[in-house]
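Lab notebook, bench 4. Still working through the backlog of constructs that have no structural model yet. Next entry is a single chain of 379 residues. Request: give me the structure tokens for it.
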Amino acid sequence: MTTSFKILLWCLMTTGFAFGYAGLVLPGQTAILETPRADTYQFQRLHIFLFNLVGGGAVLLSFTQGQQKLSWRLKVYLVGSIVFSLAAFLNLYLIAIGIAIMLALVVESIRVERFSFVPLDFFSFAKPVAQKFHHAAVLCLSLGLFISAGVMFNNNYLHLVRSSHLLLDDFFLGFSFPLSLMAFSIMFSLASPDSRQWVTFARQASFWIVTVGVIIFFVFIIIGSLLLEFLAASLLLLDVLLIFYLFKLDIQELGEPEEFLISGMLFLVLTGITGLVLVLWNGFWLNNKTSWDLLLQIHAYLSLYGWNLAGLTVMIHYYEFPLRLHSLDVTLLHWTTVILVAPTADRLPVLAIVAIPLFAILLGLILFAPGNTHNLQKR
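Model written out:
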């Protein structure tokens, strides 16, 4: 990955992180997951898009293409995803719909070139589960773009489906799912081969549980059934624990990539637990909205800047390990920023002047850590 690309990622992701606090100090903003009026804007959309869709999507596609320099399609994706993010933020839905479809076609062209149009490898027991997770990650990115375009068109123009749970931002938040799938792919690619039948079956089962389970979970959210949401969220948490166990089982020697991923998996386990609590909160403590908002922010930070950032770190430096980086110090800074400082700043906006520089330093350390150039040259 070129230095200029890393600088661009640092600028985009740091800006996105800062936009998470913009709505706290600027008037006339709506909270996340509310449908904004035409005269209001959601800075949370830029907060999510610039990290997940723009930065994360670009890294995923760059990794999939296996090229150091930006290809023309990746440049189109980067420019298009930034325009899409701004259009969605400004409620310019016709522009956002058109760009989303264009981006989905770009992603599909890369997917078909690397894998196949029909994902038959999902159904082959002989295919490595790492390849399946990778294919599913790229496919989910394109599907997320197509679906978001459809939801925008329905909610703002057609109005064929009217549901208080069919919210645009539910699908925007779903752009983090491709990064999760890609992180799982990397985890299984680092694990040693295991001929035991039960391990092979567990790996394959983990793929189907997480991919189908998330889709079902979104359906249950649209239906509005708290019981079904709780059951689906519980199943996903159990699958995360299964993947964590399989990863630890087959890692014979811990290196930097494994350490970052283990830290990320701990973030993901906490994400799953807070997700379950949020579902229960909706059923029993609806009147305590202040505490629910705080828990939602903690849940979002754990997922977005905890688990996903750990996966992105390994993806960016996949061919550059070992890094000349004190990984323990970076991990401690990562946890302090995501668990303590960032969520607290949502309640005490003055702390944003601490949270933003901390994240900028953390991201800079991660992106620009000197790596093993010999491994990169052999790629």
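Notes after review: The CA atoms of residues 110 and 244 lie 29 Å apart. The radius of gyration is 20 Å. Flag for follow-up if needed.
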